[in-house]
Amino acid sequence: MKYTAAVITISDKGSRGERVDTSGPAVRAMLEDADFDVVYTSIIPDEMDQIQAELTKCADELKIGLVMTTGGTGFSPRDITPEATLAVVERETRGIPEAMRYASLQITPRGCLSRSAAGIRGRTLIVNLPGSEKAAKENLEAVLSPIHHGMDMLYSAGSADCGQPVK
After folding, report:
1. Could you say which DSSP state residue 112 is in?
2. What's the CA gap between 131 and 70, in Å, rounded?
């Protein structure tokens, strides 16, 4: 099944036009290559109320199946994307960021510093990716196949063939 997706870049400099966003377009391309229909993109600043409003809009109003954020997952005082995400989701999906951190640790010991979060709001899966294009692509690659299966489960009436072998 083909699912809708949104890519939200969270960056103060990007939202002011002071930095070119490369991670958002890279994530969009990966999602489209994986047969997601990217129907919404935006660039917003690192502001709690704006992040929460954008995530809520995508889930509640636009009914988008998968929302990927990029940026705001580090240690800077302005990096609040995980807190904004956790404030709007109804159920956490802790395994997704755990898998992304594991994959990152295979590349760099700094992978453990990612504060990404993920969760479900209604029938929308929200996942935080790092802000750098390289890290965003590596993290998404690590979880794209399981995310697609998760979407099948989220949109099914039952187990969505959970016991089937992984492709």
Report:
1. G
2. 5
Q: Domain limits of the chain?
A: 4-154
In angstroms, the Cα distances linking 75 to 21, 79, 80, 112, 115 are: 20, 6, 9, 11, 8
Question: What residues does 69 pair with on adjacent strands?
Answer: 8, 128
- The whole-model pTM stands at 0.94
- Look at the block and give the residue holding tokens 């990096």: 79
- Per-residue pLDDT of 78-129, as tens digits, reads 999 999 999 999 999 999 999 999 999 999 999 999 999 999 999 999 999 9
The dihedrals phi and psi of 14, each to the nearest 5 degrees, come to: -65, -40
Separation of alpha carbons 14 and 16, rounded Å: 5
Q: Rounded to whole angstroms, how far apart are CA atoms 152 and 109?
A: 33
**32-59 pLDDT per residue, tens:** 999 999 999 999 999 999 999 999 999 9
79: phi then psi, degrees, rounded to nearest 5: -80, 95
CATH number for the domain running over 4-154: 3.40.980.10
